[in-house]
Amino acid sequence: MSLPKNKFTLFAALWFAASIYALLFHHSSGGAMPFPHFDKLVHFLLFFAQIWLCTRAYRAAGKNIPIVGLLSAALIWAVASELAQALFTLDREGTWGDALADICGAAAALYLAKQVERVEHIRKSS
């Protein structure tokens, strides 16, 4: 699975780099969260945006969205990022809850992308 070469691939690469910084190198402020489980929402949105940009890259290139490939990549990144946070950071912890939020965000993006793709197909057919 290789991403097409277009602006959405560039945006996805930049988003991935930003997520590496946010998850592994940016120090936690240690302040109070705006609401309980706010961090889970952030993880969900981080992965939603990453996978959404990847699906946009495929759609812009006129290619089918590789659901299994993107979900597998998200799963690997979710586990790897949580392990890295647990092992290599002093002010963060890796949790299965965060990894689950990551996967849910990726799955939601894939679901939405397939729905958009379906609607576009119906519009072109009529």
TrEMBL record:
Q: Which residues cross the membrane?
A: 40-58, 65-88
What keywords were assigned to this record? Answer: Membrane, Transmembrane, Transmembrane helix
Q: Which domain of life is it from?
A: Bacteria
Matching PANTHER family: DOMAIN PROTEIN, PUTATIVE (AFU_ORTHOLOGUE AFUA_3G10980)-RELATED
Q: What NCBIfam families does its record include?
A: vanZ_1
Name used for this protein in its record: VanZ family protein
Protein source organism? Neisseria lisongii
Q: What lineage is this protein's organism placed in?
A: Bacteria, Pseudomonadati, Pseudomonadota, Betaproteobacteria, Neisseriales
